[in-house]
Design brief:
Elements lengths: L1 E9 L3 H8 L2 H7 L3 E7 L6 H9 L9 H7 L6 E7 L8 E12 L2 E10 L2 E13 L5 E14 L6 H26 L12 H11 L9
Antiparallel strand pairs: 1-7, 2-3, 3-4, 4-5, 5-6, 6-7
Protein name: Carbon monoxide dehydrogenase subunit G
Organism: Haloarchaeobius iranensis
InterPro entries: CO_DH_gsu, START-like_dom_sf
Length: about 210
């Protein structure tokens, strides 16, 4: 199955949106049905353990680029999410693991898989940011290829497609609200010559793969 579309965010910039989408906490808060979204290092994700870990964590939304840089998505790393999705008459909760395959502003590509009882999926997804034609916002072009198995797959793409589009619309609408509520500011790479400032900008904007591992 293939899904794609473009969502426009108003009164913002590419840097501001990239900063917001670099933050796992904001992404978790914006994803409908997402219980937690955590970085995982183990070969196999233990979702019971991750759930307990999430309950004990106090991760607040912030517009501080330095805080976001410290916890930002990193290329080559894996992240586990527990998500409930309503598909027709069923509400499966998927244990999902996603790998950030590429993260280089303004593009990101991820792949992953998830399972929930008698249903599962594999997916590959990409996203690219650009200024809108009027220069007052950001266009997010996204596309996803997914193979769905089990009970959910039996409902067909005519049922699944509207669900996917609804989730994406709600996600980006929530991102838009958080951007405005938090007053997220753009990270400018044109001011200052300090190496620490340069490193921070590179880490947040995904311009340097080496700084993510430092």
């Amino acid at each position: 199955m293939e899904f794609s579309g473009t969502f426009e965010l108003e009164d913002t910039t590419v840097d501001e949106v990239w900063l917001a989408l670099s933050d796992p906490v904001l992404v978790q808060e914006s994803l409908p049905g997402c219980t937690f979204l955590l970085h995982v290092e183990a070969e196999e994700a233990d979702f019971d353990e991750l759930g307990e870990q999430a309950e004990g964590m106090d991760r607040e939304l912030t517009n501080d680029p330095e805080v976001i840089a410290g916890r930002a998505f990193r290329e080559g790393e894996r992240y586990a999410a527990l998500m409930q999705v309503s598909v027709g008459p069923v509400n499966p909760t998927f244990e999902t693991v996603v790998t950030i395959d590429e993260r280089d502003r303004p593009r990101m590509h991820a792949s992953g898989e998830g399972s929930s009882g008698d249903s599962s999926f594999e997916m590959s997804s990409s996203m690219a940011l650009s200024e809108t034609e009027d220069g007052d916002g950001v266009a997010v072009e996204w596309e996803t290829e997914a193979d769905v198995f089990g009970k959910v797959a039996g409902m067909g793409q005519r049922v699944i497609n509207p669900v996917a589009n609804r989730i994406v619309k709600r996600f980006f609408s929530s991102v838009q609200e958080e951007l405005h509520d938090l007053g997220v500011e753009a990270v400018s790479s044109s001011d200052g010559d300090e190496s620490d400032d340069r490193s921070l900008v590179d880490r947040v904007l995904g311009r340097s793969k080496s700084t993510d591992s430092e």
